[in-house]
Write a structure and sequence with these properties.
Layout lengths: L2 E2 L6 H7 L4 E2 L1 H4 L7 E6 L5 H12 L6 E7 L10 H7 E3 H4 L4 E6 L15 H14 E7 L1 H11 L4 E15 L13 E11 L2 H4 L5 E7 L3 E7 L4 E4 L9 H12 L24 H18 L12
Parallel strand pairs: 1-2, 1-4, 3-4, 3-6, 4-5, 6-7, 7-12
Antiparallel strand pairs: 8-9, 8-10, 10-11, 11-12
Helix pairs in contact: 1-3
């Protein structure tokens, strides 16, 4: 089954050209099934690019998924037009009465700020609390994961002396996990962050289980059974050129930046980078979507009850 997104969303034509099965809203209403309801709280400045990255992975499933785009109401986007936001997004206040099978909270370029200094922090805290009653399973990504694990467990983030930037080898620490079904023992994932959550802090909390980590960049993926949450600190959703775009952006702006590790062939930025994490990105999202399908209530109104 395809992913259902608005017919005029910019990601629509790109996904079709890549072979992702996409369903128009018109066609979807003719199918007598309940699609999985997945919400995407998009905190990234370039919302259109993030929509595409997430929709590409959410849509690679045999299940019908309806993706709803959500934004915080107390923050004005600087890099996405108001027309796009009005056409395709709802604020969290507008969706807070709804239930979702799955909900993704993205990263944001505010990771070196204390959480309380982020302009929309109070609203995000409300959203995180809301996910405990209105969402079956939440996937928190990068800064979104750091914010969530701080909010729920007071596990801090630490500023790095040097940006973790590149494609790093990671280890499968729980091969029996449903979320790592089909994963290799070792694999590579893009990393781009100035902060980290430390494994020693996570291991003190019996509710949290580390599923993936890296010898060089530490914790990558944590599962919390009780809250039905995943905390993903790195960027499996990145496209082949995402790190290159970040690198050349900083070079052009005169910002000191090192070459991303293990990324450009021969460490030469004149060569196009090769993508060797795509398959595991699809595996992770596919496993998450499948687990939601297997465990969520058919009656969407029942989601979150009993927690």
């Amino acid at each position: 089954m395809p992913i259902k997104i608005p017919d005029t969303l910019p990601a629509f034509s790109t996904l079709v050209s890549e072979g992702v099965r996409v369903m128009t809203e018109t066609a979807a209403i003719r199918q007598d099934i309940r699609p999985l309801q997945i919400g995407l709280l998009n905190l990234m400045p370039n919302k259109i690019r993030t929509e595409l990255q997430m929709a590409r992975l959410v849509g690679a499933t045999p299940l019908q998924v309806e993706l709803s785009l959500v934004r915080v109401g107390g923050h004005r986007a600087k890099n996405t037009s108001e027309e796009h936001l009005l056409a395709f997004y709802e604020t969290w206040e507008e969706v807070r009465e709804r239930k979702f099978d799955g909900f993704i909270i993205t990263g944001a370029p505010v990771e070196t700020l204390p959480f309380e200094e982020v302009t929309y922090w109070k609203e995000l805290e409300q959203i995180l609390d809301w996910t405990t009653t209105n969402v079956h399973s939440t996937l928190n990504v990068c800064w979104g994961a750091m914010a969530a694990i701080w909010h729920f467990h007071r596990i801090p983030k630490y500023e790095l002396t040097e940006k973790a930037f590149g494609v790093y080898q990671h280890h499968n620490r729980k091969p029996s996990s449903i979320y790592l079904n089909g994963f290799s023992d070792d694999f590579h994932i893009p990393v781009s962050r100035w902060t980290e959550v430390r494994g020693e802090d996570v291991r003190k909390n019996a509710e949290l289980e580390i599923l993936m980590d890296s010898d060089e960049t530490g914790v990558c993926l944590i599962h919390e059974q009780q809250g039905n949450r995943l905390y993903l600190f790195n960027h499996v959703e990145y496209e082949s050129t995402s790190l290159a775009d970040e690198y050349f952006r900083d070079v052009d702006a005169g910002v000191p930046i090192k070459l991303p590790k293990n990324y450009f062939p021969y460490d030469d930025p004149s060569f196009p980078p090769r993508n060797f994490w795509r398959s595991h990105a699809h595996l992770l999202f596919g496993n998450w979507i499948n687990e939601i399908y297997q465990t969520t209530s058919y009656d969407l109104s029942e989601v979150g009850k009993g927690r």
